[in-house]
Amino acid sequence: MKQQITNIASLIDHTLLKAEATSSQIEQLCQEAISFDFATVFVNPFWVNFCHNVLKNSRIRVGSVVGFPLGATTSKIKAYETENEIEDGANEVDMVMNVGSFKDSNFKLVEEDIATIKKICGKEIILKVIIEMGLLTDHEKKEAALLVKNSGADFVKTNTGLGTGGATVQDVKLIRETVGPKFGVKASGGIRDYLSVLKLIGAGATRIGTSASVKIMQEMLQEQKSL
Q: How confident is the model at residue 50 (pLDDT cuts 50, 70, 90)?
């Protein structure tokens, strides 16, 4: 049972990005991540160093966001955010694609935006790019996923969770078919239960972003007890 829990937990980014999050809530987030052995905690940039200090003697990674939630800041601002987060102890960065420029077919700008951040991240820091799939057509979703892959990032991420819509099985399948079997796919947005996690992993997600991580693990344990 412990092995199965670890396998699912190791795919989860335990997330708290609410504006009103307090230090005690962030501390709890970190302790929950240690207890369940989640992949990361994901927090706003202000909390990165706090989490780094709490988690420095654990294997839990610290992640944060760049250009969040709209993606409409300049590359210079995104670059500064990234540098600052890495200095504070971030191991992973989730940046938001410039959706407006993408819809303008200004693909060169979008690619350079992503490539700039990946250059700062280097090989050690994982870069995920949020394409906000609720704002895209199916054709645009495919184009965006390929653009992210070709720009040197490590993952395509479905949604911010604050925009239109959330992660769907159909969208994850579409991304997986587009980027191939080895590229990272993170499902995020509206993931609230264990069954949804299983379906998204089955569709090809290799990372799950959710603020309902503890509830999901409790549901998993309950289901296993009933077998």
A: very high
